[in-house]
Write a structure and sequence with these properties.
Elements: H1 3-10, H2 14-17, H3 31-43, H4 48-68
């Protein structure tokens, strides 16, 4: 049975299990840095949003561990 049929049977999609991203963060950065970042993300087959979310999650984990110690 393929994934689409399995999802249809359970009534859930993969995305339904994930936490809903419902907020935005607006930042201002240097235009040249932005272009370099976007080009590198494309070269690495990822998105800017994905990499920024990855950074934020890592930053939170790192600093929560520091505070708990």
């Amino acid at each position: 049975m393929d994934k689409a049929k399995a999802s249809a049977k359970t009534g859930r999609s993969k995305k339904a299990k994930a936490v809903k991203n419902d907020a935005q963060l607006l930042i201002r950065i240097n235009g040249e840095e932005r272009e370099q970042f976007l080009a590198l993300c494309e070269e690495l087959d990822t998105s800017a949003a994905r990499e920024i979310r990855r950074f934020i999650r890592g930053f939170i984990r790192k600093n929560q561990q520091t505070e708990e110690s």
